[in-house]
Write the C-alpha coordinates for this entry.
Amino acid sequence: MSDGIPTDGPDIAVVGAGFAGLYMLHRLRGLGFEALAYEAGADVGGTWYWNRYPGARCDIESMQYSYSFDEELQQEWRWSERFAAQPEILAYARHVADRFDLRRDIRFDTRVEAAAFDEARDRWDVTLSGGARIRPRVLVMATGCLSAAREPAIPGLASFAGPTYHTGAWPEAGVDFAGLRVGVIGTGSSGIQAIPVIAGEAAHLTVFQRTPNYSIPAGNAPLDPAHEQAWKGDYAARRATARTTKSGTIYDFSPHGALSVDEAARRREYAARWSAGGANFMHAFNDLAVDEAANETAASFVRERIAEIVDDPQVADALSPRDYPIGTKRICLDTRYFETFNRPNVTLVDLRRDPIARIEPDGIRTAERLHACDALVLATGFDAMTGALLAVDLRGRDGETLRDKWSAGPRNHLGLMPAGFPNLFTITGPGSPSVLSNVIVSIEQHVDWIAECLAAMRERGAATIESDRAAEDAWVEHVGAVAAGTLYPRAASWYMGANVPGKPRVFMPYIGGVGAYRQQCDRVAAAGYEGFRFGPATLSAAPRRAAS
Ligand code: N01
Protein backbone atom coordinates (compact mmCIF):
# COMPACT_ATOMS: atom_id res chain seq x y z
CA MET A 1 0.00 0.00 0.00
CA SER A 2 3.01 2.31 0.22
CA ASP A 3 3.49 2.76 -3.55
CA GLY A 4 0.86 5.50 -3.63
CA ILE A 5 -1.65 3.48 -5.66
CA PRO A 6 -4.99 3.55 -3.90
CA THR A 7 -6.04 0.20 -2.52
CA ASP A 8 -9.38 -0.62 -0.99
CA GLY A 9 -8.33 -1.27 2.61
CA PRO A 10 -11.16 -1.90 5.02
CA ASP A 11 -14.81 -1.31 4.20
CA ILE A 12 -15.05 1.03 7.16
CA ALA A 13 -12.17 3.10 8.52
CA VAL A 14 -12.38 4.39 12.06
CA VAL A 15 -10.07 7.28 12.85
CA GLY A 16 -8.78 7.09 16.42
CA ALA A 17 -8.55 4.38 19.06
CA GLY A 18 -9.70 6.25 22.14
CA PHE A 19 -12.92 5.31 23.88
CA ALA A 20 -14.96 6.19 20.79
CA GLY A 21 -12.81 4.26 18.32
CA LEU A 22 -12.55 1.18 20.52
CA TYR A 23 -16.28 0.82 20.98
CA MET A 24 -16.98 1.63 17.31
CA LEU A 25 -14.64 -1.13 16.24
CA HIS A 26 -16.25 -3.59 18.63
CA ARG A 27 -19.79 -2.77 17.45
CA LEU A 28 -18.88 -2.93 13.76
CA ARG A 29 -17.21 -6.27 14.23
CA GLY A 30 -20.29 -7.56 16.04
CA LEU A 31 -22.40 -6.59 13.03
CA GLY A 32 -20.09 -8.41 10.63
CA PHE A 33 -18.58 -5.32 9.03
CA GLU A 34 -14.96 -5.25 7.99
CA ALA A 35 -13.40 -2.32 9.85
CA LEU A 36 -9.97 -1.10 10.86
CA ALA A 37 -9.01 1.74 13.17
CA TYR A 38 -6.08 4.08 12.52
CA GLU A 39 -4.45 5.64 15.55
CA ALA A 40 -1.74 8.31 15.61
CA GLY A 41 -0.53 7.19 19.03
CA ALA A 42 1.40 4.04 19.84
CA ASP A 43 -1.40 2.65 21.98
CA VAL A 44 -5.12 2.93 22.68
CA GLY A 45 -6.63 5.48 25.07
CA GLY A 46 -6.92 8.69 23.06
CA THR A 47 -7.03 11.69 25.36
CA TRP A 48 -5.99 9.47 28.28
CA TYR A 49 -2.98 8.31 26.28
CA TRP A 50 -1.73 11.84 25.53
CA ASN A 51 -2.69 13.70 28.71
CA ARG A 52 -0.24 12.07 31.14
CA TYR A 53 0.59 15.26 32.99
CA PRO A 54 1.04 15.05 36.77
CA GLY A 55 -2.31 15.14 38.55
CA ALA A 56 -4.38 14.20 35.46
CA ARG A 57 -7.62 12.75 36.72
CA CYS A 58 -11.19 12.45 35.55
CA ASP A 59 -13.79 14.90 36.84
CA ILE A 60 -16.64 12.39 36.57
CA GLU A 61 -16.87 9.70 39.22
CA SER A 62 -15.27 6.38 38.32
CA MET A 63 -18.47 4.36 38.69
CA GLN A 64 -20.01 6.50 35.95
CA TYR A 65 -17.03 7.19 33.68
CA SER A 66 -16.83 3.79 32.03
CA TYR A 67 -18.50 1.72 29.31
CA SER A 68 -21.93 0.26 29.98
CA PHE A 69 -22.20 -1.92 26.88
CA ASP A 70 -21.01 -5.12 28.51
CA GLU A 71 -22.37 -6.25 31.86
CA GLU A 72 -19.42 -8.52 32.62
CA LEU A 73 -16.96 -5.75 31.86
CA GLN A 74 -18.65 -3.30 34.17
CA GLN A 75 -18.90 -5.89 36.93
CA GLU A 76 -15.33 -7.16 36.75
CA TRP A 77 -13.40 -3.88 36.47
CA ARG A 78 -12.39 -2.42 39.85
CA TRP A 79 -11.70 1.30 40.20
CA SER A 80 -9.48 2.26 43.11
CA GLU A 81 -10.57 5.86 43.64
CA ARG A 82 -13.71 7.97 43.57
CA PHE A 83 -12.18 9.91 40.65
CA ALA A 84 -9.82 7.77 38.60
CA ALA A 85 -6.35 9.05 37.77
CA GLN A 86 -5.02 8.99 34.20
CA PRO A 87 -2.88 5.81 34.58
CA GLU A 88 -5.88 3.82 35.78
CA ILE A 89 -8.14 5.09 32.98
CA LEU A 90 -5.45 4.25 30.44
CA ALA A 91 -5.15 0.77 32.01
CA TYR A 92 -8.92 0.41 31.62
CA ALA A 93 -8.77 1.35 27.92
CA ARG A 94 -5.99 -1.21 27.45
CA HIS A 95 -8.01 -3.83 29.30
CA VAL A 96 -10.99 -3.22 27.01
CA ALA A 97 -8.80 -3.45 23.91
CA ASP A 98 -7.37 -6.79 25.09
CA ARG A 99 -10.59 -8.23 26.49
CA PHE A 100 -12.41 -7.71 23.19
CA ASP A 101 -9.34 -8.52 21.09
CA LEU A 102 -9.46 -5.16 19.33
CA ARG A 103 -5.75 -4.55 18.79
CA ARG A 104 -5.50 -6.81 15.75
CA ASP A 105 -7.69 -4.33 13.88
CA ILE A 106 -5.91 -1.17 14.98
CA ARG A 107 -3.03 0.32 13.03
CA PHE A 108 -0.98 2.28 15.55
CA ASP A 109 1.46 5.13 14.84
CA THR A 110 -0.66 5.88 11.79
CA ARG A 111 -2.19 9.29 11.30
CA VAL A 112 -5.01 9.91 8.84
CA GLU A 113 -3.82 12.99 6.98
CA ALA A 114 -6.35 13.54 4.22
CA ALA A 115 -9.57 12.07 2.89
CA ALA A 116 -11.42 13.00 -0.28
CA PHE A 117 -14.76 11.58 -1.33
CA ASP A 118 -14.45 9.87 -4.69
CA GLU A 119 -17.86 10.45 -6.28
CA ALA A 120 -17.22 8.03 -9.14
CA ARG A 121 -16.71 5.13 -6.75
CA ASP A 122 -18.69 6.26 -3.70
CA ARG A 123 -15.59 5.69 -1.60
CA TRP A 124 -13.26 7.77 0.48
CA ASP A 125 -9.72 8.13 -0.79
CA VAL A 126 -7.74 8.33 2.42
CA THR A 127 -4.06 9.25 2.78
CA LEU A 128 -2.24 7.90 5.80
CA SER A 129 0.99 9.17 7.30
CA GLY A 130 3.84 7.72 5.29
CA GLY A 131 1.84 8.13 2.09
CA ALA A 132 -0.13 4.87 2.08
CA ARG A 133 -3.72 5.16 0.82
CA ILE A 134 -6.88 3.25 1.52
CA ARG A 135 -10.34 3.51 -0.02
CA PRO A 136 -12.96 2.72 2.59
CA ARG A 137 -16.63 3.16 1.86
CA VAL A 138 -17.29 4.73 5.24
CA LEU A 139 -15.15 6.96 7.42
CA VAL A 140 -15.93 7.34 11.11
CA MET A 141 -14.10 10.17 12.84
CA ALA A 142 -13.48 9.09 16.43
CA THR A 143 -10.90 11.82 16.82
CA GLY A 144 -12.02 13.29 20.15
CA CYS A 145 -13.02 16.79 21.14
CA LEU A 146 -9.92 17.74 23.11
CA SER A 147 -7.12 16.16 21.14
CA ALA A 148 -5.56 18.98 19.12
CA ALA A 149 -3.22 20.53 21.69
CA ARG A 150 -2.77 24.28 21.29
CA GLU A 151 0.48 26.14 21.80
CA PRO A 152 0.06 29.79 22.68
CA ALA A 153 1.34 32.39 20.22
CA ILE A 154 3.72 33.99 22.69
CA PRO A 155 6.74 35.70 21.11
CA GLY A 156 10.00 33.93 21.81
CA LEU A 157 8.48 30.58 22.88
CA ALA A 158 10.89 28.69 20.63
CA SER A 159 13.86 30.56 22.11
CA PHE A 160 13.39 29.10 25.59
CA ALA A 161 16.57 27.24 26.55
CA GLY A 162 15.00 24.59 28.79
CA PRO A 163 12.43 21.91 28.01
CA THR A 164 8.82 22.87 27.23
CA TYR A 165 5.98 20.42 27.85
CA HIS A 166 2.32 20.62 26.82
CA THR A 167 -0.10 18.92 29.21
CA GLY A 168 -1.90 17.45 26.20
CA ALA A 169 1.23 15.74 24.82
CA TRP A 170 3.12 14.73 27.93
CA PRO A 171 6.22 12.51 27.63
CA GLU A 172 5.48 8.87 28.33
CA ALA A 173 8.52 8.55 30.58
CA GLY A 174 7.29 11.37 32.82
CA VAL A 175 9.19 14.49 33.87
CA ASP A 176 11.33 15.00 36.96
CA PHE A 177 10.93 18.59 38.17
CA ALA A 178 13.02 18.12 41.33
CA GLY A 179 15.26 21.11 41.98
CA LEU A 180 13.92 23.06 38.99
CA ARG A 181 12.26 26.44 38.65
CA VAL A 182 9.12 25.65 36.68
CA GLY A 183 6.74 28.04 34.93
CA VAL A 184 3.17 26.91 34.21
CA ILE A 185 1.11 28.92 31.72
CA GLY A 186 -2.62 28.28 31.96
CA THR A 187 -5.13 27.71 34.72
CA GLY A 188 -7.88 25.63 33.08
CA SER A 189 -8.73 22.09 34.23
CA SER A 190 -5.29 20.80 33.20
CA GLY A 191 -3.31 23.56 34.93
CA ILE A 192 -5.46 23.35 38.05
CA GLN A 193 -4.75 19.63 38.33
CA ALA A 194 -1.05 19.84 37.51
CA ILE A 195 -0.11 22.89 39.59
CA PRO A 196 -0.47 21.32 43.09
CA VAL A 197 1.54 18.26 42.05
CA ILE A 198 4.32 20.18 40.31
CA ALA A 199 4.50 22.58 43.27
CA GLY A 200 5.29 19.57 45.48
CA GLU A 201 8.19 18.53 43.23
CA ALA A 202 9.77 21.73 41.92
CA ALA A 203 12.20 24.04 43.70
CA HIS A 204 9.98 26.91 42.65
CA LEU A 205 6.76 27.13 40.65
CA THR A 206 5.57 30.30 38.94
CA VAL A 207 1.97 30.18 37.73
CA PHE A 208 1.11 32.53 34.87
CA GLN A 209 -2.63 33.14 35.03
CA ARG A 210 -4.60 35.10 32.47
CA THR A 211 -8.13 34.20 33.57
CA PRO A 212 -8.94 32.89 37.05
CA ASN A 213 -11.18 29.82 37.11
CA TYR A 214 -13.93 28.53 39.34
CA SER A 215 -12.81 25.30 40.96
CA ILE A 216 -14.51 22.99 43.45
CA PRO A 217 -12.65 20.49 45.66
CA ALA A 218 -12.90 17.05 44.04
CA GLY A 219 -13.07 15.29 47.41
CA ASN A 220 -11.20 12.42 45.86
CA ALA A 221 -10.66 9.37 48.08
CA PRO A 222 -10.20 5.62 47.81
CA LEU A 223 -13.38 4.14 46.36
CA ASP A 224 -15.74 3.11 49.13
CA PRO A 225 -16.51 -0.64 48.63
CA ALA A 226 -20.10 -0.12 49.78
CA HIS A 227 -20.53 2.61 47.15
CA GLU A 228 -19.02 0.34 44.51
CA GLN A 229 -21.36 -2.49 45.48
CA ALA A 230 -24.40 -0.22 45.46
CA TRP A 231 -23.56 0.73 41.88
CA LYS A 232 -22.67 -2.73 40.70
CA GLY A 233 -25.79 -4.21 42.26
CA ASP A 234 -27.94 -1.80 40.27
CA TYR A 235 -25.71 -0.96 37.31
CA ALA A 236 -28.12 -1.52 34.43
CA ALA A 237 -30.85 0.64 35.97
CA ARG A 238 -28.45 3.42 36.96
CA ARG A 239 -26.88 3.51 33.52
CA ALA A 240 -30.37 3.72 32.01
CA THR A 241 -31.18 6.66 34.29
CA ALA A 242 -27.92 8.42 33.42
CA ARG A 243 -28.83 8.23 29.73
CA THR A 244 -31.98 10.27 30.39
CA THR A 245 -30.21 13.08 32.26
CA LYS A 246 -28.94 16.32 30.84
CA SER A 247 -25.24 15.50 31.16
CA GLY A 248 -25.36 11.71 31.03
CA THR A 249 -24.31 11.64 34.67
CA ILE A 250 -26.35 11.02 37.79
CA TYR A 251 -25.99 13.89 40.23
CA ASP A 252 -28.10 14.94 43.17
CA PHE A 253 -30.32 17.23 41.08
CA SER A 254 -32.23 19.87 43.01
CA PRO A 255 -35.78 20.62 41.89
CA HIS A 256 -35.51 24.16 43.34
CA GLY A 257 -34.32 27.48 41.98
CA ALA A 258 -31.54 29.22 43.92
CA LEU A 259 -33.70 32.22 44.75
CA SER A 260 -36.66 30.16 45.86
CA VAL A 261 -35.00 29.47 49.22
CA ASP A 262 -33.66 31.94 51.77
CA GLU A 263 -29.99 32.80 52.01
CA ALA A 264 -29.29 30.58 55.01
CA ALA A 265 -30.78 27.53 53.28
CA ARG A 266 -28.90 28.33 50.09
CA ARG A 267 -25.58 28.61 51.88
CA ARG A 268 -26.22 25.35 53.74
CA GLU A 269 -26.83 23.63 50.42
CA TYR A 270 -23.67 25.03 48.82
CA ALA A 271 -21.57 24.28 51.90
CA ALA A 272 -22.76 20.65 52.06
CA ARG A 273 -21.95 20.11 48.39
CA TRP A 274 -18.62 21.94 48.64
CA SER A 275 -17.47 19.67 51.46
CA ALA A 276 -18.76 16.49 49.78
CA GLY A 277 -16.74 17.51 46.70
CA GLY A 278 -17.27 17.11 42.99
CA ALA A 279 -19.38 18.70 40.29
CA ASN A 280 -22.53 17.95 42.29
CA PHE A 281 -22.01 21.52 43.53
CA MET A 282 -23.30 22.79 40.20
CA HIS A 283 -26.61 20.95 40.70
CA ALA A 284 -27.39 22.56 44.06
CA PHE A 285 -30.15 24.49 42.27
CA ASN A 286 -31.81 23.93 38.94
CA ASP A 287 -31.36 27.39 37.44
CA LEU A 288 -27.64 28.10 37.79
CA ALA A 289 -27.04 27.72 34.05
CA VAL A 290 -29.87 29.98 32.97
CA ASP A 291 -30.47 32.68 35.60
CA GLU A 292 -27.80 35.27 36.20
CA ALA A 293 -28.86 36.19 39.73
CA ALA A 294 -29.11 32.51 40.71
CA ASN A 295 -25.71 31.85 39.18
CA GLU A 296 -24.15 34.71 41.11
CA THR A 297 -25.14 33.10 44.44
CA ALA A 298 -22.99 30.07 43.56
CA ALA A 299 -20.17 32.17 42.10
CA SER A 300 -19.91 34.39 45.17
CA PHE A 301 -19.94 31.34 47.45
CA VAL A 302 -16.86 30.03 45.61
CA ARG A 303 -15.11 33.41 45.78
CA GLU A 304 -15.70 33.46 49.54
CA ARG A 305 -14.06 30.03 49.87
CA ILE A 306 -11.05 31.22 47.85
CA ALA A 307 -10.70 34.22 50.17
CA GLU A 308 -10.86 31.88 53.16
CA ILE A 309 -8.31 29.39 51.82
CA VAL A 310 -5.67 31.71 50.37
CA ASP A 311 -3.59 33.52 53.00
CA ASP A 312 -2.53 36.55 50.95
CA PRO A 313 -5.61 38.69 50.18
CA GLN A 314 -4.03 40.06 47.00
CA VAL A 315 -3.35 36.56 45.69
CA ALA A 316 -6.86 35.45 46.70
CA ASP A 317 -8.29 38.41 44.82
CA ALA A 318 -6.30 37.59 41.68
CA LEU A 319 -7.48 33.96 41.86
CA SER A 320 -11.16 34.98 42.09
CA PRO A 321 -13.15 34.81 38.85
CA ARG A 322 -15.56 37.69 38.40
CA ASP A 323 -16.26 38.34 34.77
CA TYR A 324 -18.17 35.25 33.64
CA PRO A 325 -20.89 33.12 35.23
CA ILE A 326 -19.79 30.01 37.12
CA GLY A 327 -20.11 26.85 35.02
CA THR A 328 -20.06 28.63 31.67
CA LYS A 329 -16.46 27.54 31.32
CA ARG A 330 -16.08 23.88 32.23
CA ILE A 331 -16.16 23.74 36.03
CA CYS A 332 -12.81 22.57 37.42
CA LEU A 333 -12.36 20.01 40.18
CA ASP A 334 -9.19 20.21 42.17
CA THR A 335 -7.13 18.70 44.93
CA ARG A 336 -5.72 21.49 47.08
CA TYR A 337 -5.39 23.93 44.18
CA PHE A 338 -6.07 27.18 46.02
CA GLU A 339 -4.08 25.92 49.05
CA THR A 340 -1.05 25.57 46.75
CA PHE A 341 -0.74 29.37 46.59
CA ASN A 342 0.07 29.41 50.32
CA ARG A 343 3.28 27.46 49.69
CA PRO A 344 6.50 29.47 49.98
CA ASN A 345 7.78 28.01 46.69
CA VAL A 346 4.79 29.14 44.60
CA THR A 347 4.29 32.55 42.94
CA LEU A 348 1.21 33.68 41.06
CA VAL A 349 1.71 36.11 38.20
CA ASP A 350 -1.56 37.83 37.32
CA LEU A 351 -1.17 38.40 33.58
CA ARG A 352 -4.12 40.77 33.48
CA ARG A 353 -2.13 43.17 35.63
CA ASP A 354 1.35 42.21 34.42
CA PRO A 355 1.12 40.64 30.93
CA ILE A 356 3.72 38.43 29.27
CA ALA A 357 5.97 40.48 26.99
CA ARG A 358 7.92 37.53 25.59
CA ILE A 359 9.63 34.29 26.41
CA GLU A 360 13.42 34.46 26.62
CA PRO A 361 16.01 31.67 26.90
CA ASP A 362 16.03 32.04 30.71
CA GLY A 363 12.36 32.40 31.42
CA ILE A 364 9.24 34.48 30.93
CA ARG A 365 9.48 38.25 30.80
CA THR A 366 6.37 40.11 31.86
CA ALA A 367 5.88 43.85 31.69
CA GLU A 368 7.44 44.10 35.16
CA ARG A 369 10.34 41.64 35.15
CA LEU A 370 11.93 38.36 34.07
CA HIS A 371 10.64 35.26 35.87
CA ALA A 372 13.52 32.80 35.65
CA CYS A 373 12.46 29.26 34.66
CA ASP A 374 14.35 26.03 33.96
CA ALA A 375 11.30 24.28 32.46
CA LEU A 376 7.98 25.42 31.05
CA VAL A 377 4.60 23.72 31.16
CA LEU A 378 1.97 24.82 28.67
CA ALA A 379 -1.44 24.03 30.13
CA THR A 380 -2.91 26.09 27.32
CA GLY A 381 -5.65 23.77 26.14
CA PHE A 382 -6.90 22.60 22.80
CA ASP A 383 -8.34 23.65 19.49
CA ALA A 384 -11.45 21.99 20.82
CA MET A 385 -14.17 20.09 18.98
CA THR A 386 -13.20 21.09 15.44
CA GLY A 387 -9.38 21.08 15.71
CA ALA A 388 -8.80 17.36 15.25
CA LEU A 389 -11.38 17.11 12.46
CA LEU A 390 -9.96 20.05 10.53
CA ALA A 391 -6.43 18.76 11.01
CA VAL A 392 -7.40 16.12 8.46
CA ASP A 393 -7.73 17.58 4.95
CA LEU A 394 -11.34 16.44 4.46
CA ARG A 395 -12.96 17.00 1.07
CA GLY A 396 -16.54 16.05 0.27
CA ARG A 397 -18.63 16.33 -2.88
CA ASP A 398 -17.35 18.74 -5.54
CA GLY A 399 -14.05 18.97 -3.70
CA GLU A 400 -15.56 21.15 -0.95
CA THR A 401 -13.27 21.19 2.06
CA LEU A 402 -14.64 20.81 5.56
CA ARG A 403 -12.47 23.79 6.51
CA ASP A 404 -14.33 26.01 4.01
CA LYS A 405 -17.69 24.57 4.93
CA TRP A 406 -17.03 25.31 8.61
CA SER A 407 -15.38 28.69 8.10
CA ALA A 408 -18.20 30.42 9.99
CA GLY A 409 -18.60 27.59 12.52
CA PRO A 410 -19.31 23.85 12.42
CA ARG A 411 -22.36 22.69 10.45
CA ASN A 412 -23.82 19.21 10.40
CA HIS A 413 -27.04 17.32 10.96
CA LEU A 414 -27.57 16.03 14.50
CA GLY A 415 -23.88 16.50 15.25
CA LEU A 416 -23.33 13.33 13.23
CA MET A 417 -22.74 14.20 9.60
CA PRO A 418 -21.90 17.35 7.59
CA ALA A 419 -24.02 17.72 4.43
CA GLY A 420 -21.95 17.19 1.29
CA PHE A 421 -19.74 14.61 3.03
CA PRO A 422 -21.41 11.26 2.35
CA ASN A 423 -20.58 8.30 4.61
CA LEU A 424 -18.59 10.52 6.98
CA PHE A 425 -19.69 10.21 10.58
CA THR A 426 -18.36 12.16 13.55
CA ILE A 427 -18.52 10.66 17.03
CA THR A 428 -19.28 13.30 19.68
CA GLY A 429 -18.77 16.00 17.09
CA PRO A 430 -19.85 19.62 17.37
CA GLY A 431 -23.63 19.90 17.45
CA SER A 432 -23.91 16.97 19.86
CA PRO A 433 -23.81 16.99 23.71
CA SER A 434 -20.23 15.65 23.67
CA VAL A 435 -18.11 17.84 25.95
CA LEU A 436 -21.11 18.93 28.01
CA SER A 437 -21.74 15.34 28.97
CA ASN A 438 -20.17 12.27 30.44
CA VAL A 439 -18.44 11.65 27.15
CA ILE A 440 -18.47 7.85 27.42
CA VAL A 441 -22.28 7.93 27.64
CA SER A 442 -22.36 10.15 24.55
CA ILE A 443 -19.84 7.94 22.75
CA GLU A 444 -21.92 4.84 23.34
CA GLN A 445 -25.05 6.57 22.05
CA HIS A 446 -23.33 7.84 18.90
CA VAL A 447 -21.59 4.56 18.18
CA ASP A 448 -24.84 2.61 18.59
CA TRP A 449 -26.68 5.05 16.32
CA ILE A 450 -23.98 4.92 13.63
CA ALA A 451 -23.71 1.12 13.82
CA GLU A 452 -27.46 0.73 13.44
CA CYS A 453 -27.51 3.25 10.61
CA LEU A 454 -24.82 1.29 8.76
CA ALA A 455 -26.77 -1.93 9.30
CA ALA A 456 -29.88 -0.21 7.91
CA MET A 457 -27.86 0.90 4.89
CA ARG A 458 -26.71 -2.63 4.28
CA GLU A 459 -30.25 -3.87 4.61
CA ARG A 460 -31.38 -1.40 1.95
CA GLY A 461 -28.43 -2.15 -0.29
CA ALA A 462 -27.51 1.54 -0.21
CA ALA A 463 -24.00 2.71 -1.00
CA THR A 464 -24.20 6.10 0.64
CA ILE A 465 -25.94 8.06 3.30
CA GLU A 466 -25.70 11.81 3.53
CA SER A 467 -27.46 14.53 5.39
CA ASP A 468 -29.78 17.03 3.70
CA ARG A 469 -28.71 20.66 3.74
CA ALA A 470 -32.16 21.74 4.93
CA ALA A 471 -31.99 19.31 7.86
CA GLU A 472 -28.48 20.51 8.62
CA ASP A 473 -29.59 24.17 8.56
CA ALA A 474 -32.45 23.41 10.92
CA TRP A 475 -30.18 21.52 13.31
CA VAL A 476 -27.52 24.22 13.38
CA GLU A 477 -30.19 26.81 14.10
CA HIS A 478 -31.63 24.66 16.90
CA VAL A 479 -28.19 24.15 18.49
CA GLY A 480 -27.64 27.93 18.49
CA ALA A 481 -31.12 28.73 19.78
CA VAL A 482 -30.85 26.34 22.73
CA ALA A 483 -27.43 27.76 23.67
CA ALA A 484 -28.76 31.31 23.44
CA GLY A 485 -31.30 30.46 26.16
CA THR A 486 -28.47 29.82 28.64
CA LEU A 487 -25.68 31.85 30.22
CA TYR A 488 -22.99 29.81 28.42
CA PRO A 489 -22.32 32.18 25.52
CA ARG A 490 -21.36 34.86 28.11
CA ALA A 491 -17.95 33.26 28.70
CA ALA A 492 -15.00 33.51 26.33
CA SER A 493 -14.63 29.73 26.53
CA TRP A 494 -13.29 27.01 24.30
CA TYR A 495 -16.94 25.89 23.91
CA MET A 496 -17.28 29.17 21.95
CA GLY A 497 -14.00 28.78 20.08
CA ALA A 498 -12.79 31.87 21.95
CA ASN A 499 -9.43 30.38 22.94
CA VAL A 500 -8.16 30.13 19.37
CA PRO A 501 -7.38 33.39 17.60
CA GLY A 502 -9.48 33.71 14.42
CA LYS A 503 -11.79 30.80 15.24
CA PRO A 504 -15.47 31.64 14.70
CA ARG A 505 -17.33 32.46 17.93
CA VAL A 506 -20.06 29.85 17.86
CA PHE A 507 -21.28 27.75 20.78
CA MET A 508 -20.29 24.35 19.40
CA PRO A 509 -21.73 21.60 21.59
CA TYR A 510 -25.48 20.86 21.85
CA ILE A 511 -26.75 21.97 25.23
CA GLY A 512 -30.26 20.49 24.94
CA GLY A 513 -29.15 17.54 27.07
CA VAL A 514 -28.13 13.94 26.54
CA GLY A 515 -31.63 12.56 27.20
CA ALA A 516 -33.42 14.95 24.85
CA TYR A 517 -30.73 14.53 22.20
CA ARG A 518 -31.00 10.75 22.30
CA GLN A 519 -34.75 11.00 21.77
CA GLN A 520 -34.23 13.18 18.70
CA CYS A 521 -31.66 10.78 17.24
CA ASP A 522 -33.93 7.80 17.90
CA ARG A 523 -36.89 9.58 16.34
CA VAL A 524 -34.88 10.38 13.22
CA ALA A 525 -33.80 6.73 12.89
CA ALA A 526 -37.33 5.42 13.51
CA ALA A 527 -38.61 7.74 10.79
CA GLY A 528 -36.31 6.06 8.25
CA TYR A 529 -33.39 8.41 8.92
CA GLU A 530 -35.32 11.59 8.37
CA GLY A 531 -33.07 14.41 7.18
CA PHE A 532 -30.62 11.92 5.67
CA ARG A 533 -30.62 10.52 2.14
CA PHE A 534 -29.55 7.06 1.04
CA GLY A 535 -27.85 6.66 -2.33
CA PRO A 536 -28.15 3.54 -4.49
CA ALA A 537 -25.34 1.02 -4.76
CA THR A 538 -23.26 1.12 -7.88
CA LEU A 539 -21.38 -1.96 -9.05
CA SER A 540 -18.07 -0.71 -7.67
CA ALA A 541 -19.55 0.47 -4.40
CA ALA A 542 -21.55 -2.50 -3.21
CA PRO A 543 -21.30 -2.96 0.55
CA ARG A 544 -19.19 -5.90 1.59
CA ARG A 545 -19.52 -8.23 4.53
CA ALA A 546 -16.50 -9.34 6.43
CA ALA A 547 -15.24 -12.79 5.57
CA SER A 548 -15.41 -13.90 9.20
O1 N01 B 1 -7.47 24.01 28.65
P1 N01 B 1 -8.32 25.36 28.85
P2 N01 B 1 -7.32 22.77 29.64
N1 N01 B 1 -1.21 33.30 27.61
O2 N01 B 1 -8.54 25.88 27.48
C1 N01 B 1 -4.52 29.81 29.23
C2 N01 B 1 -10.96 18.96 29.72
N2 N01 B 1 -10.12 18.49 30.79
O3 N01 B 1 -6.39 21.81 29.00
O4 N01 B 1 -8.72 31.45 29.96
C3 N01 B 1 -1.61 32.99 28.83
O5 N01 B 1 -9.49 25.16 29.71
C4 N01 B 1 -6.00 30.08 29.26
O6 N01 B 1 -6.25 31.41 29.67
P3 N01 B 1 -7.63 32.15 29.19
C5 N01 B 1 -12.00 19.90 30.29
O7 N01 B 1 -13.19 19.76 29.57
C6 N01 B 1 -10.70 17.70 31.72
O8 N01 B 1 -7.02 23.21 31.00
O9 N01 B 1 -7.73 31.89 27.73
N3 N01 B 1 -2.50 32.03 29.11
C7 N01 B 1 -6.46 29.01 30.25
O10 N01 B 1 -6.20 29.40 31.57
C8 N01 B 1 -11.34 21.23 30.10
O11 N01 B 1 -12.20 22.33 30.12
C9 N01 B 1 -9.98 17.27 32.77
O12 N01 B 1 -7.42 33.55 29.55
C10 N01 B 1 -2.99 31.35 28.10
C11 N01 B 1 -5.54 27.84 29.90
O13 N01 B 1 -4.42 28.38 29.22
C12 N01 B 1 -10.66 21.02 28.77
O14 N01 B 1 -10.17 19.70 28.82
C13 N01 B 1 -8.67 17.62 32.92
C14 N01 B 1 -2.60 31.60 26.76
C15 N01 B 1 -6.21 26.85 28.99
O15 N01 B 1 -7.31 26.30 29.63
C16 N01 B 1 -9.51 21.96 28.48
O16 N01 B 1 -8.75 22.14 29.67
C17 N01 B 1 -8.08 18.41 31.96
C18 N01 B 1 -1.66 32.63 26.55
N4 N01 B 1 -1.27 32.97 25.32
C19 N01 B 1 -8.82 18.84 30.89
N5 N01 B 1 -3.27 30.75 25.97
C20 N01 B 1 -10.67 16.45 33.78
O17 N01 B 1 -11.35 15.49 33.50
C21 N01 B 1 -4.04 29.98 26.77
N6 N01 B 1 -3.88 30.35 28.05
C22 N01 B 1 -10.55 16.90 35.13
Notes: The first strand starts at residue 12 and ends at 15. Residues 150-214+327-381 form a domain with the FAD/NAD(P)-binding domain fold (CATH 3.50.50.60). The chain has two domains: 12-148+384-535, 150-214+327-381.
